[in-house]
Amino acid sequence: MTAMPPIIEAQQLTKIYRVGKVEVPALQGVSFSVERGEFVSIVGPSGSGKSTLFYLLGGLTQATSGRVIIDGDDFARLSDAQRTEMRKRKIAFVFQKFNLLPTLSARGNIEIAHDIAGKNGAIDEAFLKKVTSLLGIEDRLDHRPSELSGGQQQRVALARALVNRPSIILADEPTGNLDTKNSEVVLSMLRQTNKEFGQTVLMITHNPEAARYGDRTIHMRDGQVISAEEVVKHE
What pTM was computed for the model? Predict the structure, then answer.
């Protein structure tokens, strides 16, 4: 049987920003791959290039050189419209800032992902119920973001990411605005949804303790990968 190719591949990624006449390298030849269904944490201090890598892997910006291959498709060979369609179909984002619309209920904020993705027909109510029950927010769906705690808002954001069953979840410092207790809850939920629904998760974090919720940790510093290691799974 032929092995399935990695769902995420970064090949010699370089990103250089120009500030006036000065070139500032953010990434310098970063290469790694992520297997289907894997939970990988990218960890490093501020300025290590983590966020730049996040935007490249999500197709939100383009590399100066190198390749990003998502589920067999090379971002560099896709048009802007094709990259947008790829994000709609295969990638969901979870950010440090919850990015919930204040005028919508929790349910409305989740459903809007279904609408933006251009899904035909009504939302899958059974799957929505399963996701919100797993995340412990099924009784908060009629509440607006201002009526929810920070932890509950991040769980709504996670439900929004899951509702279209994307192949990949990209999470950028998803616990950065949360206290320790809520951070543990959200990370446990992210791990549980990875196991329950089989999505590949790549999480950017500066926190080594948060990184341990993944299967594998990739360490970055000064725009380069300096090491990768397996970690003990949180069950």
Answer: 0.88
